[in-house]
Design a protein that fits this description.
The protein is 31% helix and 27% strand. Strands 8-10-7-11-9-12-13 form a 7-stranded mixed β-sheet.
């Protein structure tokens, strides 16, 4: 099957959302923006052997490449609208492509985003890149740069689960909570929309909680004190790995796609679904504390070119 047959068979379907004038099948997509909204553009790439194991099921690869982009949309308080796909294939057969497309469209349907175009090519490994366009009310986008001293630091969900799940996958093991947290991350889109106008700064946790909180603080020109004992842990990760290892996963593991955000202290009543884990300071670094004790944590996170 050539490139055009592949696109027609697996990636072309009837447009199901409003705003798309021209979708898959032309030289470019055409869509109508919503009056009073600003566009948010995000892009992310998954590379076989770098971001996912080579034996990962194709449907999970397809789902993940959409979900990780939607997490960036969530971190900016936006609503996802349209996406494009650039897919490089190696030695994968038609069943792999069919399964990949099934996972990709499952994520798209779960979160109301429409595939409007893309490209396919051949290469040495699978490389999947998704570009998502979202919309947010003018002037209400969440940024990394708004945190101020005295703001409270929050996290959604239970960080560390996805990194723990990946470690199980790499060891050939499985469970019903941690592994799915890596395979099918849940972008916090509803929470991001709620935070628009409430949070002072926001980032999604892709490279590790401490590493990504450090990025937020650098963008805002502030520091943070992070209470290690306040970081929420799932029962599954503690039961499987013990509390100390679970804390390591939570602080330095990536791929959670939870939202780490800051908000003025008075906003607590509106944020019962998130966990307060620290406070923004006038310093220039993130300090992890357990009571009065400073905890030494590797804050480098995942880096491609380190």
């Amino acid at each position: 099957m050539d490139e055009f047959d592949l696109i027609r068979r697996y990636f072309t379907r009837r447009v199901r959302t409003d705003g798309v004038v021209v979708g898959v099948g032309d030289d470019g997509a055409i869509f109508e923006s919503t009056p009073g909204m600003q566009q948010v553009q995000v892009i992310d790439t998954l590379v076989e052997g770098v971001h996912f194991p080579s034996n990962l099921h194709a449907a999970d690869v397809g789902y993940r490449v959409v979900a990780v982009n939607l997490s960036d949309i969530a971190a900016m308080g936006a609503r996802p609208r349209w996406m494009t796909l650039a897919l490089t294939l190696s030695d994968k057969d038609e069943q792999w492509v069919e399964d990949f497309a099934r996972g990709l469209f499952a994520a798209a349907d779960d979160h109301g985003v429409e595939l409007v175009g893309g490209d396919t090519t051949r290469g040495d490994v699978v490389v999947a890149t998704v570009h998502v366009t979202g919309e947010v009310e003018a002037g209400r986008a969440l940024l990394r740069s708004g945190a101020r001293a005295g703001d409270v630091v929050y996290i959604t969900g239970t960080p560390g689960d996805a990194a723990a799940g990946l470690s199980l996958i790499e060891d050939g093991r499985h469970d019903d909570h941690l592994v799915p947290r890596f395979l099918r991350p849940v972008p916090r889109l509803a929470e991001g929309r709620v935070l628009a106008g409430v949070a002072s700064a926001c980032i999604d946790v892709s490279d590790g909680l401490v590493a990504d909180l450090t990025k937020l603080c650098e963008a805002s020109g502030v520091g943070a004190d992070l209470d290690v004992d306040a970081v929420p842990l799932s029962d599954a990760i503690v039961e499987r790995f013990g509390r100390d290892r679970a804390v390591d996963f939570a602080l330095t593991g990536g791929d959670d796609y939870e939202l780490c955000f800051t908000a003025p202290a008075g906003a607590n009543d509106h944020l019962a679904w998130a966990t307060a884990i620290g406070v923004i300071t006038t310093g220039n670094a993130v300090t992890c504390r357990r009571g009065d004790e400073i905890v030494d944590v590797d804050d480098a996170g995942y880096r491609h070119f380190a």
